[in-house]
Amino acid sequence: MPVNAEGQRNLLDFKPRTTVSWEAGDEGKVVLLVPKFRNKWAVKWFVPMLAKPTVRVKLDERGSFVWQRCDGNTTLESIGEEMSRAFSEPLETTYERLGKFIHQMARSKFLTLDAVAESV
């Protein structure tokens, strides 16, 4: 994993991997199926009583574009370059937007960021 002089890693070198189920919705937009409970005890006792054990989170066009590429094999840099071409926007704007989206999804534990193995 490349590290800069301050010991920080570049976000674009990470490979995002989804941690929640999802389905394709209208017009190819992604709908995340987020469990209402993640605690084992709550899942055992409350989920069987719920009509819908998940919350549906609908992503916009750009979010869906990114989500469909979060396979654990593609770096954020590659996703950003592809997104920039697909939506005809400057790479800097795309990386900023991508960083905010990935931060929100990771903070909500909808995806994880796998480090790229360092080549020797």
Description:
With 120 residues, the protein is of the alpha+beta class. It has one domain: Arc Repressor Mutant, subunit A, CATH 1.10.10. 35% of the residues lie in helices and 19% in strands. It has four helices and five strands, in the order E-E-E-H-E-H-H-H-E. A three-stranded antiparallel beta sheet has the order 2-3-4, with helices on one face. It has a two-stranded antiparallel ribbon with strand order 1-5. Strand 2 and strand 3 form a beta hairpin. Helix 3 crosses helix 4. The radius of gyration is 17 Å and the shape is globular. The model has no long low-confidence stretch (mean pLDDT 85).
Secondary-structure topology with pairs:
Elements (H helix, E strand, L loop, with lengths): L14 E4 L2 E4 L5 E6 L4 H6 L8 E5 L2 H7 L8 H12 L3 H17 L3 E4 L6
Helix pairs in contact: 3-4
What pattern of helices and strands is seen along the backbone?
EEEHEHHHE
Shape verdict: globular
Per DSSP E runs of 2 or more residues, the count of β-strands stands at 5
Give the biggest beta sheet: 3 strands, antiparallel
Residue-averaged pLDDT: 85
**Proportion of residues in β-strands:** 15-25%
Question: Which CATH architecture would you pick?
Answer: Orthogonal Bundle
CATH fold-level assignment? Arc Repressor Mutant, subunit A
Count of distinct structural domains: 1
Please bin the fraction of helical residues.
25-40%
How would you briefly describe this protein structure?
The protein is α+β, with helices and mostly antiparallel strands. The chain has helices at residues 40-45, 61-67, 76-87, 91-107, and strands at 15-18, 21-24, 30-35, 54-58, 111-114.
